Amino acid sequence: MKRIWNNITKENSVFVLLLGLCPALAVTTTFEKSYVMGICVLFVLLCSNIIISIIRKLVPELVKIPVFILIIGTFVTLVEIVLKNELPELYSVLNIYLPLITVNCIIFGRALEVASKENVGKSILDAIGTGLGFTLALMILGLTRELLGTNTLTIMSREGVAKLTGSSLVFGDIIPGFIPVNIMVKPAGAFLSLAFLLAFINYIKIRRKKHVSN
Amino acid sequence: MKKNIKGILVLTLTALICGALMYLVYSYYGGNI
Hints:
The structure holds two protein chains of two kinds. By secondary structure, chain A is mainly α. Chain A has nine helices and two strands; from the N terminus they run αααααααβαβα. In chain A, strands 1-2 form a two-stranded antiparallel ribbon. Chain B is mainly alpha-helical. The chains are: A mainly alpha, B mainly alpha.
């Protein structure tokens, strides 16, 4: 549990390690897209970590990287096929960022650092922690950007996740009287949101250090 | 030489298994990718 908690908080891949920023900034225009991307990355991370950990002693050093990329790419393709058939509109919105999961630093980094060296149990815990941390970071970014950029909250849209659950959950005019700042759903807004969130997190960290040293 | 052959075998086997897995899911959805 400590490992999972560590990966979500102290070693969060987006807010602390600053990895996987491409999808983090590009798809977090709505809350729904954020958690769907997070779940896709969690699935690929978990499955690839399990398989790589199982075969770690059979793979020679010479072909480690191509084999790992093959395994990660397979799971990404499976995610793409499933998403395209089950949620086609969401698939077309996520577009190029789904195949880009294959070259996401988080997944390949965890495969090399943890899955290829540790047993299956530790690899699973590491994958769950890292994936949950990434999903949480994306959800925070998505929530911030959608609230400030459109003053709405899309949890399950009719064209998206509602196709699986049967009921849509979209809230409009969350903050009454608030005029949305449209730039927050544009690329510049992505960098602004991330910058302010990082600044806030670093401020909390410094205050905590001062409190502990006192 | 032995290491190279083992490496090529592992890589080929992984590619075949990954390909079979992708084909399974692909055929489950009726060839729609």
